[in-house]
Amino acid sequence: MKDPAILVVDDNPDHLELTVMALAECCDPGQIATAADGVEALDFLLGRGRHAGRDTSRQPRLVILDMKLVRMHGLEVLRAIRADRRTAVLPVVMHSSSTEKGDIAACYASGANAYVGKATDYDELRRRMRQAHGFWVTVNERGEPAT
Fold first, then answer.
1. CB contact set of 8 (below 8 Å; sequence gap of 6+)
2. Number of domains present in the structure of the chain
3. Mean pLDDT for all residues in the chain
4. Predicted TM-score (pTM) above 0.90
């Protein structure tokens, strides 16, 4: 996949699959890329590892990023996204089951554009993903990296 509209990052295969299923109801499933952890997500976004040679000037319109990833914490991934000029303006929605005020504050302090709690049932997940897609992919004006 070369130019996905959305990159979903979650290390829980069930959560990843359900999130993709929910998003596929409002956009072409071929426009959804996935990463099983933060390292894989950064490899995709920054064109390294198995994604070496990918045109990094063509980034997704939205990254949905789980916060509590095991291999590389979601906040570390977010900071790395913000630190690279190619990805610094990418909209990143943190997607987590945490309701801790400190976790939410840390996400925003690290550069998250939004924080969406994980839904407790599939209908709610569908609604939240439809809203996220509706705003970030269809309504929001895409920013360009600084030169």
1. 16, 19, 20, 23, 32, 33, 34, 35, 64
2. 1
3. 93
4. yes
Which tens digits make up the pLDDT trace of 87-115? 999 999 999 999 999 999 999 999 999 99
Give, in degrees to the nearest 5, the angle at Cα 20 between 60 and 85.
20
Residue whose structure tokens are 């906040």: 75
Residue 1 lies in a domain: no
Q: What confidence score (pLDDT) does residue 147 get?
A: 63
**CATH number of the domain enclosing 80:** 3.40.50.2300
CB count, 10 Å around CB of 17? 13
- DSSP annotation of 119 reads P
Domain that holds residue 69: 6-139
Token pair 């390294």 is found at: 48
In whole angstroms, what is the distance from residue 44 CA to residue 81 CA?
11
Residue 93: other Cβ atoms inside 10 A = 21
**Structural domain contains residue 34:** yes
Question: Residue 122: inside a domain, yes or no?
Answer: yes
| Any domain includes 147 | no
Residue pointed to by tokens 């995709």: 44
15, burial (CB in 10 Å: exposed 0-12, middle 13-18, buried 19+): middle
